[in-house]
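Researcher: Here's a chain I'd like modeled. Treat it as a single chain, no partners, no ligands.
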Amino acid sequence: MADAENLVAEIEALEEKLALAKQAITRRFIGQERVVELVLAALLCGGHGLLIGLPGLGKTRLVETLSTVMGLKGNRVQFTPDLMPADILGSEVLDTAADGSRAFRFIQGPIFCQLLMADEINRASPRTQSALLQAMQERMVTVAGENRLLDAPFHVLATQNPIEQEGTYPLPEAQLDRFLVQIDVEYPDRDTERDILLATTGVTEDDAHKVFTAAELVAAQTLLRRMPVGDAVVEMILDLVRAFRPEDPTAGERVRDTVAWGPGPRAAQALMLTVRARAMLQGRLAPSPEDVLNLAQPVLTHRMALSFSARARGESLPDLINSVATGLLGAEAAA
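Model: Modeled as a single isolated chain. Structure tokens:
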């Protein structure tokens, strides 16, 4: 009983701190509460986020603000077609000492940080994109045969422009799967855009201030995994993920006719973590089925693919996910 009471007290204290962090971020990144919530959820889960949106919607501003508020050492890399893996990871150089002796010295690349912004990630070649695979999964890089650990915590927030496809390279499925969530950054509504104009075109702007430290974020990530998840939510996560695998007996006819390949176990792991993070960000002590429904699209969209015939018919993955998830939630409620 005492352990349960301590856990509740720790979660409630963290929820208060997260509310302050969210408030500090939304003062500079105005009117995009869902985007802020998803990015904070990715950090709380120890994962990475893929931000997809048109130019000028504040994606870079969001990441810079997040770095300050969460107390993380951040670096930014502009991905271009001529970017090489060594430009991200670092490389060895040959130094000559005063006595004439020579030795190799490793110069760290920008990936040696705690929050890496990979700007326009799909503009780099597949060879350069693959340089991030090991770092995103194992939190280390191998250069010249030596494994080098990255800072803790380590997160990648990548941005991608959905309309400029000239000179771009699609992200490999293996790399997409390593992003915990796909975050769509939409145009603001009129009132929000008015607030943005007034807040950002005056003499002064709100400055971001630190709310967390890196050590506190690591502790929060550990606490998140201790949050209890009810059996009903666990079963719903399993039902939802398996329902999008065309070869699974539980998949419906629409999924079998629409989906080329579905999400793997990493999708279920991502949902298990992110529903806890959403509950925590909203001041609750445990996740609910509604959290699963809310996070189905950001977690699953980039882990699935439409068949050729489905694309020809104009099918949409977000519509399919929302339809199946809503039907599943209704069935769970009826049961």
